[in-house]
Queue: 4 jobs
Job 1
Amino acid sequence: MIFDTHAHYNEKAFDTDRDELLTQMEPAGIAGIVNMGATIQDVYDSQELAARYPFVYAAVGVHPDEVGSLDEEKLQLLYELCGREKTVAVGEIGLDYYWDKESHEMQKKWFVRQLQMAKDTGLPVNIHSRDAAQDTFDIMKAEHAGTTGGIIHCFSSSAQMALEYIKLGYYIGVGGVVTFKNARVMKEVVAAVPLENLVTETDCPYLAPAPHRGKRNSSLYIPLVIEAIAQIKGIEPREAEEVLYENALRVYRLK
Ligand code: NI
């Protein structure tokens, strides 16, 4: 069975056929999906999807590009939503110095506050980090390591840093990028990190694996990601699938 640890099925790209697509998941072996928060509205949409589909779970969190909309009152709301039955993570939270939509100070402040929320509510985290590898790592190490664990989503740093995260108790999220011909570093990361510390994800509708690169992504394409991981590890896809599924259940505490 297959687990998508990071998806955005509430996005516009799925408006025309969301239900039709999601009813295809279980027959295709997709046994679990965690829908992320990015804006506050996404957080509510994720709860709604989770209520509608037994295999969909929700994450609660505000993306670094969106933290300008946060205040104490909204944070309190997020805390309450963390207590809902199908909330399994705080995410996606982190730092994004690529789009740089909010000041670094503002991003760091709300990143730390949301890491604290994860600790307070006992939920693992799902981390977004873009062009901010060292700051993300330093904050994770100082503020969260050794607590509730979680996933470094769409990991894009070095194999060496991936191993540092593993030491702190985190998992590495692997998606469509690992299938790209030019993804040398991602392939190195998958080779270096033990299979037991990897999880599958899509970030759909973004980052579809080859040969669908550039098209709308969905969890139905995860077998292509598993195949790429299995090939790097020199094992059968079936074996990789089983381990990766167990890893996702473990990190989200669904066992
Ligand atoms: Ni995402």
Job 2
Amino acid sequence: MKYIDEYRNPELINKLCASIKKIADKPYIFMEVCGGHTMAIQRFGIPSLLPSTIKLISGPGCPVCVTDTSYIDHLTALGQLDKTIICTFGDLIRVPGSYTSLDKAKAAGADIRVVLSSLDALKIATENPKQNVVFAAIGFETTSPGTAVAVLEAEQMNLNNFSILSAHKIMPPAMKAIVEDGVKINGYICPGHVSTIAGSAMYEEVCRDFGLGCVISGFEPLDILHSIHMLLVQLKNNDPKVEIQYKRAVKPNGNKKAKKIMDQVFVAVDGKWRGLGSIKRSVLKLRPQYYKYDAEHQFSVSFKTKEPDKGCICGEILKGKKSPSDCILFAQNCRPENPVGACMVSNEGACQSYFKYHQYGK
Ligand code: SF4
């Protein structure tokens, strides 16, 4: 298939759904760990196409949602420093920290700018040599190679006013933590974009240690249904394995060049995820030889992080233990225009996707 329409072909979708219905003769729960999949699943109404025996739940796949409150607090504290520009992706700017968010800090006078990439932040640094530019480096393997390139370019240009605050994350440790926390699932629908960089091998440990099938999926309706079908076939054959459904984009070894650059610049350390707490070797920090570009090492700021707002169950949603409609604030006090938690802020957040595609916004 070549064109998007073909991945939305009603005839093929009906055939696949009939086949899924045939195999799904008992209850199964599959978790998607990619914000793009969360949105696509709701947008295309995938749950309504599935038999009642199959339940899809969202995990910690939205990069903005999994960013811990303490990170926002750290960034806003950095934004209070003299001659400092904070560069951030758009979604992050509205995520509430303990006391404020980046957009409120901006309204109060901090120099906070929305950028589309780490290289935009680097450009701002070259254009403002008398100011320190801190790039809010968040996301999974889809964005971390870009941050690594910005650090290497800053080094090449001998820039002294560019740094990053890294909360980059890798997915498999969180996938393991969720199962270890007792969440019962029968398989993972694995991220598409992350896997174009990282490849499929990184899921082998999850599959081997927990006997869970992992299928890397594309984002169109047929992709997602096909991935569910593949997981069901694995279960039927009692043969959990790592498979790539999204073959038009993902290769087993991923993008070797991007992985090499990431390895050169970053090292995985224990770090915090919203809702999941600290997870071993799950957060990417700069290696010591790049501390010159690490805002954590360059600037000393103090900040306090308090417990999240009462009522927000983002953490439980990110673990797959609850769904947005379980939250008493959902679509009442918490709406996209007035979000209480990160899951309602982000375009890839479970709460926003439910709000958007379940008619709450009408
Ligand atoms: Fe948090 Fe709002 Fe989602 Fe409730 S609806 S869990 S308050 S983000």
Job 3
Amino acid sequence: MRNLCLLGLAISLASPSVWAQTPTAPLPPKDVFVADLMKQMTEAEKIGQLRLISIATDMPRELIRKEIAAGHIGGTFNSVTRDENRPMQDAAMRSRLKIPMFFAYDVIHGHRTIFPISLGLAASWDMDAIAQSGRVSAQEASADGIDMTFAPMVDIARDPRWGRTSEGFGEDTYLVSRIADVMVKAYQGLSPALPGNIMASVKHFALYGAVEGGRDYNIVDMSPTRMFQDYLPPYHAAIKAGAGGVMVALNSINGVPATSNMWLMQDLLRKDWGFKGVAISDHGAIIELIKHGVAKDNREAAKLAIKAGIDMSMNDKAYGEELPGLLKSGEVPQSDLDNAVREVLGAKYDMGLFADPYLRIGKAEDDPADTNAENRLHRQEARDVARKSLVLLKNNNQTLPLKKQTRIALVGPLANSKVDMLGSWSGAGVPAQSVTVYEGLQKAMGQQGSVTYARGANISDDPKIAEYLNHINTGGIDVNNDPRPAQTMIDEAVKAAQHADVVVAVVGESRGMSHESSSRTSLDIPDSQRALISALKATGKPLVLVLMNGRPLSIEQEQAHADAVLETWFSGTEGGNAIADVLFGDYNPSGKLPITFPRSVGQIPSYYSHLSIGRPFTPGKPGNYTSQYFDAENSPLYPFGYGLSYTDFSLSPFTLSSKTLKPGGTLTASVTVKNTGKRDGETVVQLYLRDVTASMARPVKELKNFEKVMLKAGEQKVVRFTLSEDDLKFYNAQLKYAAEPGEFDVQIGLDSQNVQQNSFELL
Ligand code: NOJ
């Protein structure tokens, strides 16, 4: 975060306004300015401001421009260059009141330069690295004339069947909330009104990650305590960090769709949290109120949504077509319309667009000749962040790092896939610019060793899956299956393995498998690739699995076959180089899982911070009537917070500065972390708390703080965590947020499972 200001201002401030009457004179304060403008607006112009149109829809551009010039559109999304946006802003400048448009886009984990998917960013546990990805995204998007991103996506995900698990930052409330804060500040910088910064629109409000069965768009049914305790804080953190926008979720919450949910949108968001920005529906969500079964037609849907406080309607016709009649009949009072318009204009003011509508679009003569030019990318930053996101899950007998003089058999359908390296939601990223594992290894090794590549298997042999994956990717073919028989491909890979010193198998999911609408009933690696892994194991050669995936996978068998396992998510434009850095030990892996890896899909939900229960699992006699599955182990495959390094770290017994904590006071937990191995490296010291006895069951542990520490070989450092009453507060059964006196356990470890414990009492 250190360089936010400098980075923000690094982009040229010189883009003279053609709109403002006196460019140098500051505008009146927002409320005065907006109120004055609204006095001049007709009802049709007001309604127009509430329409957010997708450029990718079938409305021709010419018609869009005509509509803008007539004052009938407030903003668009899905255009990604200055010269696409400029004619639309020009059209707005021809409109009666010259109200500028804003241009939004899904800048989720990078823009032209793609960073690791959000789940991978979270795995870095490195707030500076995450901020870096956000800053670069903002700069690149701003330089392409984009004013707002539909991000950060901070939906807590505890059911990895949900394909959008990849888009969020994992299962943990504290970690996701910290990242929400960092991301909003990184996108918006000192102010979203400055060029180089863009406005953040946090999503999906609310609880979208808890869709029943992990099936996308399904209902959410959740107790209020769980909402407030676990799922809502990340959105709140983003809003407290100043997010100018909120995108409203597609799901219902306890029967009431978020899009028509007065409690959610009015009581919680506006009144309790004091949100003053713009609330945007998700794509077509207003009309979907009919399918939810709470509106009988578009008219009623529009009425419900505007009453709930949805300011902008994303890509559906409901507001444009229905609000005139609803206002005329008095079913929607003028004040509802005005409230929505005020927020839209306020957001435009905050984005700096009234001061200069061309703030980010700039002048035509300054447009880049090639928007995808290499010199517009931030490769070094992407490589740096990507290697921090990789998680070493297993490393028997120091299989890794590899020597560069090695003969490597590189196999797997993902080993040389440029498109998959980018992950989902990487719309402005160019696959041809991404570095595959094959390319990364070759480059790192030069003439020193050799890489023999054999595909070995298709992503899946099920033609329906390939068809599905190619269908959801509107940009082109995502999965290009090799037509050879599966056994021929395996034989070829086995032959390569037999002639190699080590096998590196890049396996997992294609990017479309972890995407919107891509929910799965299984967390397995597809059978085609499992058969490949078994055949490789049978060669007896050391086997390194490089996983690419956007959700935890159930890899109990595959990891047992492997000598080493590296989780790489979808690591972005520089993924192949970053993975090579780790495989060869040019970077010592330091990532930690931001989400639990279950042994099987049947263990879901498998998050670590579950509430205490009356009969917790106690190993012992079979059928001992404690909470377990009798047909599998109870523990996860890899716990939350887990990740290895090429060096070893030890933690000293930790001390608490006091055995009691007075309300209003603080207490310090101190622990010495030592690098006991032979390489320099980083680890994450994690602090968890447990409220032992309270008025209601509390989590067995909850992350409350962490520190990522860099230590040279042999070096040690004391890490101190300060605890205050605030860290002990929770929402009780009456939704009162308070700490209750009594005993608390403090647990400190390098993952969530392997911890040491001390306790204190809150007086
Ligand atoms: C629908 C998705 O749910 C949302 O996350 C995204 O921002 C919009 N489409 C716009 O692309």
Job 4
Amino acid sequence: MNKKGLLIVISGPSGAGKGTICKSLLESQEFWVSVSATTRSPRNGEVEGKNYYFMTRDQFLDKIAQDDFLEHAEVYGNLYGTPKSKVIEMLNSGKNVILEIDIQGALVVKDNYPDGVFIFILPPSMEELRNRIINRGSETPESLMTRFKSAYKEINYVSKYSYAVVNDTVEVAVNKIKSIVVAEQCRVDRMKENFTYSKEGLIHEQFYD
Ligand code: 5GP
């Protein structure tokens, strides 16, 4: 029987390094990172279909009407959404699917899919977070201010997540996430639905597939 993959939700403030972490996870065959749709304009170097599916507000609203999103949210004045069908297809094929989404979206997914694994990425310090956002050089002064302010608010939501990972070094953070995934895959309550009992008790071969 083909085991379903885990749905892994990664959130954290702008500049925490979620993007770099997801890129690194994608190097492992077992992970697939969902590509979101957005109404935001592409930044320098961003590629259609790789970083995002860029679309107009009208196109996005059409997709909402067609129930094409697993979740969607307005972030910093732009719409972002997770295309539903591809995520389901990849989970069914056994891939661990990563959604790099904001807190509003993560909370919607948590309501609809409590079996998901919810991970919050924290910066090593607020000072370092500021430096990372500034050094990215992609934001206007107003957008920088919005992102700093939001970051302070967003960090309070860490308590809604199951895991917090401090992104001091990308390699260490990625290894922590991989360890979380291994631990989640070993949880007995995830296997329970496949338990079969005989007169002698549990048929335990099912743990060894
Ligand atoms: P950025 O504009 O920096 O690429 O992303 C801004 C925020 O939108 C980030 O917090 C990112 O995680 C979030 N985001 C990206 N894609 C999605 C999505 O599909 N759904 C939701 N809810 N948030 C998203």
